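Need tokens for this chain, all 300 residues.
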Amino acid sequence: MKQTKPLNGSLIGILGGVILSFDSVFIRLMGIQDSWTIVMLRGFFMWAVCLLVWALGRRSRSTLGKPWLTRENALPTLFFAIASACFVNALNRGNVATVLVIISSTPFVSALISRLFFQVKCDRSVMVAALAGIAGVVIVMSGRSAGDSAVANLYALATAVSMALAFIFTARVEGGTLALPSLGAVVASVAILLWSGEDMFTTLRELSLAQYGWSLAEGMLVMPLAMGLITLSTRYVSPANAGLFLLLETALAPLWMAIFLAEMPTLHAVAGGAIIVVAVISQTLYARRQVSSARYADAG
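Here are the structure tokens for all 300 residues:
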């Protein structure tokens, strides 16, 4: 039974990655210019959903974990908070495709940090898939024009590093971890609210009902479900492998942008995205073959 866990973790992570790929569309549909307002709103919404599930579903608590800060979950919560703030700022300040391409370096960063600082050996198939994903990233970037915001790119890079560290430390937390992304998001929200003060309340009063509606949908449905599933996958697969699921957003988000917002991706983006998707699927199929081979050996 234990041998099926890597496969189950991959399937859980892939589902989370597909759902996460809609995040860019929802953020654009909000039409909120101030990135910090988006971070603050979705953080509170994500945490509200988490608390509601924790309060009403006793059976879910073992999977969710504690939706409040503890000594054990402090580090992953911190890095999820940083990632939440940096991602929205990157997406709201720069080109969507370029930002997502940079963030797709997360699995490589995760594997490198795990290997250098925690002496964690990564499966060869994970490293091959990560390198293939990076190759897709290079193709996408080769088709982008110059002039994209340098600040947005720095936010995107900070997102990749923060997500990698969040996955690494989440894998070390005992018990449920599904609530950690929401907990990190609300920590970022509280920090922004304390920092902004009255200015934030003035901004909130100026938002329309439609903007609040898209914020609710993104913060209470898309993000909790997507990040929760990807975080849950770290219970069954390595942090580097979990980072691969973020590559699906790089590949699929331009497609959703084209369908729903008529922003057509370049040929480079399509080619690079295809390579990324193939890399993730191939690694998952490889893990499935490994499970099948192990079952056959045990039966023999």
